[in-house]
Amino acid sequence: MATYLPTLKQLQYLVALNDHGHFGRAAESCFVTQSTLSAGIRELETLIGVTLVERTRRVVRFTPLGEQITDKARLILREADELGDMARAAGRPLSGEMRMSVIPTIAPFLLPKILPRLREDYPDLKLFLREEPSAAACEGLHHGRTDCVLLALPYACGEVEIEPLFDDRLFVAFPEGEMTKTQQPVVADDIDETRLLLLEDGHCLKDHALAACNHPELRGQAAMLGTSLHTIVQMVDNGLGVTMLPEMALGSGILEGTRIVVRPLEAERASRRIALVWRRASPRERDFRLLAGVLAKAQ
């Protein structure tokens, strides 16, 4: 008796639809037409004899069993990806495709320093980059959408291998003429919490800054939020408040053209640790540790 198994392509379509919640966007992510993706999922449903997706004109809703099968499909696709990883790991170091997520408070400051070096030293490496907040990056890592994540610790990213790279010190940034009585460095008590500008929720740098100030309870005050470090710099330059900036941002010239003054923060947790993380037992561990060595030299 012949046994018919789902294809990887069918499972890929199912996971894409679950991720995007829309047939058109899911099809675009798989580089196929909407009709091809829809037909593939219907074939999968016919094959296993159950309904996975309830289709209406406005909503795509997965059945409870559909959600369970999608979770299993993610694991299967990840294992399939790792088959290719095993083959690449047996070849030349840092070659082939690699997908890396980088958080927004690192990407614009560190990547311009490391990408030219990687292209020169490892021309066979095809590095696909994705900029996203820590939570989305870690979720993508465990779902197999990315191979490794460049982020800042402390941050709970699940069961991962961690290669610390370097510490990135925090500095207090304030408008020229403010905090004139404060000597270097700035202690947390010198900062007026009512004027503290932070990144919006989802950016781990916000939590690092609040922890450094011993004020984790300020997390939810929306009046203090900015969308990016560059936006916050402009707010500070216009006298709207003070903020904290990582040393790598300062070294990349984020304050050029402003009249902002910066001083180092003196606190028990006055820095964040930049690290590369990947899934445990990944067959490309050697590649990730080699990549971490390149990243560590770019500070």
Automatic annotation (TrEMBL):
GO cellular component terms listed in the entry, alphabetical order: protein-DNA complex
Record-linked InterPro entries: LysR_HTH_N, LysR_subst-bd, WH-like_DNA-bd_sf, WH_DNA-bd_sf
Pfam families named among the record's database cross-references: HTH_1 (PF00126), LysR_substrate (PF03466)
Domain of life: Bacteria
Xref: SUPFAM superfamilies: Periplasmic binding protein-like II, Winged helix' DNA-binding domain
UniProt key word Cell division: no
GO molecular function, one term: DNA binding
PANTHER family membership: TRANSCRIPTIONAL DUAL REGULATOR HCAR-RELATED, TRANSCRIPTIONAL REGULATOR OF OXIDATIVE STRESS OXYR
Family: Belongs to the LysR transcriptional regulatory family.
Protein name: Hydrogen peroxide-inducible genes activator
Provenance organism: Stakelama marina
Organism classification: Bacteria, Pseudomonadati, Pseudomonadota, Alphaproteobacteria, Sphingomonadales
